[in-house]
């Protein structure tokens, strides 16, 4: 393995904002060498077909090993960031002694096809390499960045022999080798602290954290709208197809990052798709549920569901309140929508927003009524409440039952941009504002001055003694890293969805 560096090793050990990471092309300093590299054309041909750069994607030769020890060759730092059985996400660094020291997230997928490790020319492997190619082409300050990837596999040796009658020893007839395990590792930046679901839960679990989570949450509407608009650009043309809170992570600087492109799909030759494809049921759009023709506006529906949960939290209710209330009258049984008990309700395994849209208008009215109590008890929150109530009609349009009634992604940012102005800190996202003005998703590398926002530690709480850190600037985590406890609870910031094999909680519905 080979690493290049254009800065001091100490400066590369600290997290930096994703915008700085991209504008400085930090990912280009990671380059694989040729040690232990696979040379078989059966393994390398699919890599070439996927148009992957061999400097960034390496297939290791099995070297007669019978076991794999992920996240090797990377070095794990702390507990796993996410685990869905067939996929584990680690926080890692390159091995000690190498120049490139940036902390990364490493997604390790156990590749299977019909419960068996796939061969080098299998469809499961081809699909996994497509995910790598999809990620490597994306460069946006609110979309996870691809750094490098690798494949490794081990073999199982079986000796077949025959012992003639009356003989003490068997005669060896053949030696058979087969693939025992095959993994794909994708190194990404940033290694986030938690996902959006955990982030919103923290508002109700830690009132102290809510004082800065709520102002940041206001800004996420615009940031995520710009991220999806970037994916849907004519020059990119990618549908994410699995937008949900678990696939939106929050980095060390309090910025939202869209991740997990295992279900993404290019639509270079056409924007429509039909038939069953994997997707998380809860956030699936109506046309996907019925396996009808769909396009990039399926992402708009899913993003609208996420925005609905974010607005619910900003209007004083737990994130599960939307599901609880919409499910209560999903079958039109005459039950009324009522105020939350504060628990957020119990999650229904078969709940999905698409089947509850007939009840959505009543739910939005309930949110408006409940917000009056919040203003009455805390008048200082009135500007926030008014700003959030103003976006509810836009969220309703995003969640329209008919595909043609939903907006395109490029229309969204102006609808939610006013939320930046509710709180002075953190204020507008400079990257999104620059993209609005110039169309450039990656700004020039520059230093900015102004307001600062605190960092969040591994358990989702705000570090009380830590200095406030500027939103979206480098060098903000040195003190935070020293203050973090040695043992941290598992938060699972990354969704953990695997490419190839089906994952629990997903159905064939786009």
Automatic annotation (TrEMBL):
Record's GO cellular component terms: nucleus
UniProt keyword annotation of Cell membrane present: no
Superkingdom: Eukaryota
Listed GO MF terms: ATP binding; protein serine/threonine kinase activity
E.C. number(s) listed in UniProt: 2.7.11.1
Protein kinase domain mapped to chain residues: 75-395
Catalytic activity: L-threonyl-[protein] + ATP = O-phospho-L-threonyl-[protein] + ADP + H(+); L-seryl-[protein] + ATP = O-phospho-L-seryl-[protein] + ADP + H(+)
Biased composition (Low complexity): 474-487
InterPro entries, sorted: Kinase-like_dom_sf, NEK_Ser/Thr_kinase, Prot_kinase_dom, Ser/Thr_kinase_AS
Biased composition (Basic and acidic residues): 282-296
Segment forming the signal sequence: none
Keywords annotated in UniProt: ATP-binding, Kinase, Nucleotide-binding, Serine/threonine-protein kinase, Transferase
Region (Disordered): 1-21, 269-296, 433-510
Enzyme class: transferase
Pfam family of the protein (one): Pkinase
Keyword Transit peptide recorded: no
Identification of the protein by name: non-specific serine/threonine protein kinase
Species in which this protein is naturally found: Corynascus novoguineensis
């Amino acid at each position: 393995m080979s690493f290049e560096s254009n800065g001091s090793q100490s400066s590369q050990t600290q997290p930096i904002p994703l915008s700085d990471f991209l504008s400085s092309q930090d990912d280009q300093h990671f380059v694989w060498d040729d040690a232990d590299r696979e040379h078989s054309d059966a393994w390398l041909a699919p890599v070439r077909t996927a148009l992957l750069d061999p400097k960034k994607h390496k297939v290791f030769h099995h070297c007669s090993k019978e076991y794999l020890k992920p996240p090797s060759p990377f070095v794990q730092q702390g507990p796993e960031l996410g685990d869905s059985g067939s996929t584990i996400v680690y926080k890692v660094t390159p091995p000690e002694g190498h120049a490139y020291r940036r902390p990364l997230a490493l997604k390790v997928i156990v590749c299977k096809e019909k419960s068996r490790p796939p061969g080098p020319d299998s469809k499961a492997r081809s699909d996994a390499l497509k995910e790598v190619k999809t990620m490597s082409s994306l460069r946006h300050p609110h979309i996870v960045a691809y750094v490098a990837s690798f494949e490794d596999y081990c073999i199982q040796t079986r000796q077949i022999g025959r012992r003639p009658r009356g003989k003490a020893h068997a005669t060896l007839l053949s030696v058979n080798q087969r693939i025992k395990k095959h993994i794909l590792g994708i190194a990404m930046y940033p290694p986030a602290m938690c996902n959006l679901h955990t982030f919103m839960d923290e508002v109700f679990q830690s009132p102290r954290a809510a004082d800065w989570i709520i102002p940041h949450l206001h800004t996420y509407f615009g940031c995520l709208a710009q991220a999806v608009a970037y994916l849907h650009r004519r020059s990119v043309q990618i549908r994410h197809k699995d937008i949900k809170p678990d696939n939106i992570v929050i980095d060390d600087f309090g910025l939202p990052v869209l991740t997990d492109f295992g279900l993404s799909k290019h639509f270079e030759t056409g924007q429509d798709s039909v038939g069953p494809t994997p997707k998380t049921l809860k956030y699936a759009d109506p046309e996907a549920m019925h396996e009808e023709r769909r396009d990039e506006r399926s992402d708009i529906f899913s993003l609208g569901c996420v925005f609905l949960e974010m607005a619910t939290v900003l209007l004083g209710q737990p994130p599960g309140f939307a599901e609880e209330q919409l499910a209560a009258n999903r079958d039109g049984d005459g039950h009324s929508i009522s105020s939350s008990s504060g628990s957020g309700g119990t999650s229904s395994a078969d709940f999905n927003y698409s089947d509850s849209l007939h009840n959505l208008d009543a739910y939005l009215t309930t949110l408006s009524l409940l917000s009056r109590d919040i203003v009455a008890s805390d008048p200082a929150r009135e500007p926030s409440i008014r700003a959030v109530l103003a976006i509810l009609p836009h969220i309703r349009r995003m969640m329209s039952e008919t595909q043609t009634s939903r907006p395109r992604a490029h229309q969204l940012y102006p609808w939610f941009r006013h939320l930046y102005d509710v709180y002075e800190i953190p204020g507008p996202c400079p990257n999104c504002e620059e993209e609005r003005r110039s169309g450039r998703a990656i700004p020039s590398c520059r230093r900015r001055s102004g307001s600062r926002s605190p960092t969040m530690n591994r358990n989702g709480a705000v570090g009380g003694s830590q200095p406030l850190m500027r939103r979206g600037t480098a060098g903000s985590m040195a003190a935070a890293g020293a203050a973090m406890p040695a043992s941290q609870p598992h938060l699972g910031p990354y969704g953990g969805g695997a490419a190839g094999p089906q994952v629990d909680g997903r159905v064939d519905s786009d």
